[in-house]
Design brief:
about 180 residues; about 30% strand; globular; binds 1-O-pyrophosphono-5-O-phosphono-alpha-D-ribofuranose; binds hypoxanthine; binds magnesium ion; cytoplasm; nucleotide-binding; Hypoxanthine phosphoribosyltransferase
């Protein structure tokens, strides 16, 4: 699939699945230790987090409810416009709920910084973030991300939910693109 378009594999399918199991166990233990009762509310950030959200929710050994928000700041570019648009809001009130934002990537941090302010204003009981990927060298705004799967180099990546111009989300691993893809 995508013959000749992927330059390198940064995180394999197996590495992703192992990390998800590790994060799920750790997060369940943390919430149990903090005495959280009642279902956790996972807020998946569409579209990028869709694969991570569904695998993570199934790996999590405590009950969780699933909600989605769709925001976009990249469009078909490889750097954030900095303007975050809500394409789909949550369907319900999160006041008093223990909310865990499930993201695919923290790159500049602009999306998450905006989202954390937006959701905090709705008065959840707690608000934390779990992101599969983070690019430490790309961060423009400091955002508190309690759970991170992999720190990766400052390169544009695709796969496992992440797109370039809406393509490659369906790959089961994280990779970089051959430069010819950008010029075609
Ligand atoms: O830290 P940042 O620089 O803000 O980048 C991270 C955000 O950018 C991507 O979303 P995008 O806007 O591409 O929408 P998508 O998930 O629908 O692809 C990604 O899924 C994150 O939500
Ligand atoms: O590296 C990336 N790849 C795809 N989408 C993204 N959104 C933020 N950073 C990235
Ligand atoms: Mg995108």
């Amino acid at each position: 699939m995508y013959e000749g378009e992927i330059a390198s594999v940064l995180v394999t399918e197996q590495q992703i699945q192992d990390k998800i199991n590790e994060l799920a166990k750790q997060i369940a233990a943390d919430y149990a230790r903090d005495g959280v009762t009642g279902d956790l509310l996972l807020v998946g950030v569409l579209k990028g987090a869709v694969m991570f959200m569904t695998d993570f929710a199934r790996a999590l050994p405590i009950p969780a409810q699933l909600e989605f928000m769709a925001v976009s700041s990249y469009g078909s570019a490889t750097s954030s416009s900095g303007v975050v648009r809500i394409l789909k809001d949550l369907d319900r009130d999160i006041a008093g709920k223990h909310v865990l934002i499930v993201e695919d990537i923290v790159d500049s941090g602009l999306t998450l910084s905006w989202l954390l302010k937006n959701l905090a204003s709705r008065n959840p009981a707690s608000l934390e973030v779990c992101s599969l990927l983070r690019k430490p060298e790309a961060v423009k705004v400091d955002v508190p991300v309690k759970y991170v799967g992999f720190d990766i180099p400052n390169e544009f990546v695709v796969g496992y939910g992440l797109d370039y111009a809406e393509r490659y989300r369906d790959l089961p691993y994280i990779g970089t693109l051959d430069p010819k893809v950008y010029s075609s």
